[in-house]
Write a structure and sequence with these properties.
Largest sheet of chain A: 6 strands, mixed
Order of helices and strands of chain B: HHHEHEHHEHEHHHH
Radius of gyration of chain B: 33 Å
Helix content of chain B: over 70%
CATH topology of the largest domain in chain A: Rossmann fold
CATH superfamily of the largest domain in chain A: P-loop containing nucleotide triphosphate hydrolases
Number of domains of chain B: 2
Oligomer: heterodimer
Mean pLDDT of chain A: 93
Number of domains of chain A: 2
Low-confidence stretches of chain A: none
Mean pLDDT of chain B: 80
Largest interface: A-B, 25 and 27 residues
Shape of chain B: elongated
Low-confidence stretches of chain B: 1-9
Number of helices of chain B: 11
Shape of chain A: globular
Bound molecules: adenosine-5'-triphosphate, magnesium ion
Number of strands of chain A: 10
Distance between the termini of chain A: 21 Å
Radius of gyration of chain A: 17 Å
Number of strands of chain B: 4
Chain lengths: 220, 312
């Protein structure tokens, strides 16, 4: 469950990105986060894994106020969240396989299980045959799919996606959204920020809309 | 943190195996990264080696001098018993026999006043002057080589208390003074090393910090996916250990070279310094010290730096 209680966020340059935002997303639900550019979508997502901290208000995950988490607990906490940002953020010196394996490596998963899970994740995004390639040898869309495989490989309970289909052609974008709905069907809470209104209209999921940092609830 | 994870999901031993594997991977990763910048890595190792070589050579020289001195002083540190003027030659010889039978004494030799005067004349070429001295002013002297160096002071006190003996002198003051000088030199070098250690740590820490800066992108990503600081830091600690090991090994090599050159130069001038061109085992201690210093430096540098790199 993701819960925002009267959350405001002002950046150091006094740019107010979020104003008094409150909402509750029950565990296992999928929600789209929409709104015009600069409305605060990315900011809202970045507050959840503690990349940013709110100026005021509380963010609760499964009932825990994450603002009160001790610093040493944050890594543990982040492992339960799959992050998919628009920039694929892959490591060029590692192969596709090793990039996807990273979230398992940091948790010291055994080698065989790592290999099994990495191949399953790559299979889901249709890149099983590219596991030995370097990220630079892949197209933008392929890199984004590697990014998605990496976010899903450790079976997180929450997935946050910030314009995950920005680089993809419409058909691939639809594929990715289908992967997300599959994941959601398996019980993962999904919060997906996107501009692609046409695309999400095909999916039966509620929409949270931000305008100038304020939250508007509407249903698709 | 790793132990707690081990309890979740997987059997502890399997995770422990994976954790150990990560140590192996970290070491390989550290070596690969150092190898990728051979010049920079070699340069920081050379800085470490160069600054360690001077104090190490000094220590080795002093250590060697101390050993040489120990051998020398065994021969030289003899006791001289100045007999009372009232003791005649027969009494002196009787005392000599008694002393020779003392197990604490290896050897003893009597120098009568006449012989003493002869020796003095020979060594100082003052025949003319001495022949004019009618009353020989020298006392009879018994020179004593003690059986061992321990209990020398007690032996002297014991001998000084003999009725025939006026005073007992130990002829090792010069040796003692030299030994004191060597000790002072060693202490000074140790102080120098103690001052040097933080400077070396800073050098290594800076190398690690630069490495971390080059890897900022990777560090950010690792933080985002929930890697602990310990995980992110591990390869860097191995880098520090490798730097420290390489630096101290290199400086041992340089010190050995310096010692050999010193001994050879001395030999060319026909001067046997009694110094060996081997390094004392004590200096091998510097290797673990260097490794620990490297790890500490890497730990500090990464502790300061990882916090500054924030995920975006
Ligand atoms: N790191 C930052 N420092 C200062 N201001 C920021 C920062 N990030 C975002 N902002 C500001 O906060 C506001 C909200 O930005 P945010 O990136 O959350 O919007 P968004 O809804 O994701 O926009 P887009 O659809 O273009 O990605 C903007 O006015 C932006 O200029
Ligand atoms: Mg954005």
């Amino acid at each position: 469950m993701i819960q925002f209680e009267r959350v405001s966020k002002a950046y150091p340059n006094d740019q107010t990105a979020l104003k008094d935002v409150s909402f509750r997303l029950p565990a296992g639900r999928m929600v789209f986060l929409t709104g015009p550019s600069g409305a605060g979508k990315s900011t809202l997502l970045r507050l959840i894994p503690q990349i940013e901290r709110p100026t005021s208000g509380k963010v609760l995950i499964n009932g825990t106020d994450i603002g009160r988490l001790a610093a040493w607990r944050i890594p543990q906490f982040r492992r339960r969240i799959g992050l998919i940002f628009q920039n694929p953020n892959l490591l060029d010196e590692l192969s596709v396989f090793d990039n996807v394996a990273l979230p398992l490596r940091i948790q010291h998963y055994p080698r065989e299980e790592t290999a099994r899970r990495v191949r399953a994740a790559l299979d889901k995004v249709g890149l099983l045959d590219r596991e030995k390639a370097r990220p630079m040898e892949l197209s933008g869309g392929e890199q984004q799919r590697v990014n998605i495989a990496r976010a899903l490989v450790a079976k997180p309970s929450i997935v946050l996606a910030d314009e995950p289909t920005g680089n993809l052609d419409p058909e691939l974008a639809l594929d990715i959204m289908r992967i997300f709905t599959e994941f959601n069907a398996a019980g993962v809470t999904m919060l997906i920020a996107t501009h692609a209104l046409g695309l999400i209209s095909q999916f039966d999921a509620p929409r949270l809309t931000l305008r100038e940092g304020r939250m508007h609830l509407e249903n698709a | 943190m790793d132990a707690r994870q081990a309890q979740r999901g997987h059997s502890g031993s399997v995770r422990l195996g994976a954790w150990l594997t990560h140590h192996g991977e970290s070491l390989r990763d550290a070596l690969r990264r150092l190898a990728r910048r051979p010049l920079g890595s070699l340069l920081s190792m050379l800085v470490i080696a160069a600054s360690l070589t001077i104090p190490m050579t000094l220590l080795a020289t002093l250590h060697s001098a101390r050993i040489g001195l120990a051998g020398w002083s065994n021969e030289a540190a003899l006791l001289q018993l100045y007999l009372k003027p009232s003791v005649d030659e027969a009494e002196g010889r009787a005392l000599l026999t008694r002393l020779k039978n003392d197990p604490a004494i290896a050897d003893a030799r009597l120098i009568t006043p006449e012989k003493g005067l002869e020796q003095l004349a020979q060594t100082h070429a003052i025949d003319g002057l001495l022949s004019e001295i009618k009353n020989n002013p020298l006392p009879a002297v018994i020179e004593i080589h003690p059986a061992d160096m321990k209990g020398l002071d007690a032996l002297r006190d014991h001998l000084a208390a003999l009725p025939e003996v006026e005073t007992a002198r130990m002829d090792s003051e010069a040796v003692e003074r030299l030994r004191g000088l060597i000790s002072a030199g060693e202490q000074l070098t140790m102080i120098f090393l103690a001052i040097l250690a933080p400077a070396l740590a800073i050098t290594m820490g800076n190398t690690i910090r630069l490495e971390l800066e080059r890897r900022a992108h990777e560090v950010r990503l690792l933080q985002l996916i929930g890697a602990t600081h310990a995980f992110i830091r591990r390869p860097l600690l191995y880098s520090g250990a490798v730097l420290g090991l390489g630096g101290t090994l290199l400086s041992l090599l340089l010190s050995m070279l310096a010692m050999r050159m010193l001994v050879e130069a001395a030999a060319r001038h026909g001067w046997d310094m009694g110094i060996q061109d081997t390094l004392p085992n004590m200096l091998l201690l510097l290797i673990p010290v260097g490794v620990i210093l490297g790890i500490t430096a890497a730990w500090l540098a990464s502790a300061l730096q990882i916090r500054r790199i924030r995920p975006t």
